Amino acid sequence: MLLPKAVVDRIYLKARSLDELRLRDTPQDRRWLLAFDSVYQRLNPDMRRFFDLHFRASRPWTDVTYELCIERSTFYAWREQILMQLAVAAVESGATQIFYS
Question: What's the pLDDT tens digit per position in 64-74?
Fold first, then answer.
């Protein structure tokens, strides 16, 4: 199952701005951080490294695939998997809604 592009884009941008979220420290930002931390804790070591390289360090896919010795398809599969987990965790923490009324 794929998430709507608008949802993926929003979560992707939040993941790329974790340092900003920590600095602002609003109630909404804390809910996002809770979602990210809960997903990060459940990732296996390889996917944690992927998360650190791609989301936290903002490294491009070419650098990440080279450093982790993975294929491009694995990069995108892992990214999609993490974004899906982040979407669920963000809804659970109250950081966002997927469906708007």
Answer: 999 999 999 99
- Break the chain into its structural domains and give their ranges: 12-93
Of the pLDDT bands very low, low, confident and very high (cuts 50, 70, 90), residue 1 is low
- 49-59 pLDDT, tens digit per residue, is 999 999 889 89
Cα dihedral sign, 44-49-50-54:
positive
Does the pTM surpass 0.90? The reply is no
Cβ atoms of residues 83 and 39 within 8 Å: no
Tell me, letter by letter, the H, E, C secondary structure of 27-89: HHHHHHHHHHHHHHHHCCHHHHHHHHHHHHCCCCHHHHHHHHCCCHHHHHHHHHHHHHHHHHH
